[in-house]
């Protein structure tokens, strides 16, 4: 074999080796990119699914979680395009489509609960509402929602954002009232009314709720109307309105506070 032939064979072999390495590297980069993309989609879709489930327990209007669930289905479809014939993705998408059918049923009644047990819980639920608003605005940008539809849903979310805090405070007040801690109960009721009054929400239900909060604090009613606050599990019984000992205890506490303040002034 001549030196020239050997050189040519070496160059050909080297070129083939480099091509194989380049193809392998390309496949590796592509696989790495797909894994990263799938991980991103998986993270976002699971987070969005949690929002859908939470909103279905928060929203009177079931169209809002239904619209978010449409985004969930679209993301699963994108994952299937990246990695077809993947059983767990196919199963998750089937569950999302089944949930879509359930969310499309607006006839049946379902429990609504906006009561949170801590400030952190309130913040998480309100963040869920804010995320829903962002998704709906994005859908409007894509032409899936008209401007009037978007505004209607946003108005409902603004009201829901306010109610999550207000209803939670009222529930705390009811719990205190049920254990005959009238001062603590009134403190929660007053905070709820203040949150309502300071809110820029223009929903007409706000003024009804402010009025009814005043009636609760003056013992003209024990709870908010059920159409405003369907969470009735902590509502005080109406019989407590006739319990004179509650008012007597409240008067005794008020007299004690006034006496203590008077004593401080005399000492000064």
Structure description:
By secondary structure, this protein is mainly alpha-helical. Helices cover 75% and strands 0% of the residues. Helix 2 runs antiparallel to helix 3 (87-103) and helix 5 (147-178) runs antiparallel to helix 6 (182-198). It starts with a helix and ends with a helix. The model has no long low-confidence stretch (mean pLDDT 84).
Summarize this structure briefly.
The chain is mainly α.
Topology:
Layout: H1 3-58, H2 63-82, H3 87-103, H4 119-141, H5 147-178, H6 182-198, H7 205-217, H8 244-267
Helix pairs in contact: 1-2, 2-3, 4-5, 5-6, 6-7
Features:
268 residues, mainly alpha, 8 helices
What is the quaternary state of this protein? single chain
Radius of gyration: 30 Å
> Could you give the order of the helices and strands?
HHHHHHHH
Largest sheet: none
Query: What level of helicity do the residues show?
Result: over 70%
Shape summary: elongated
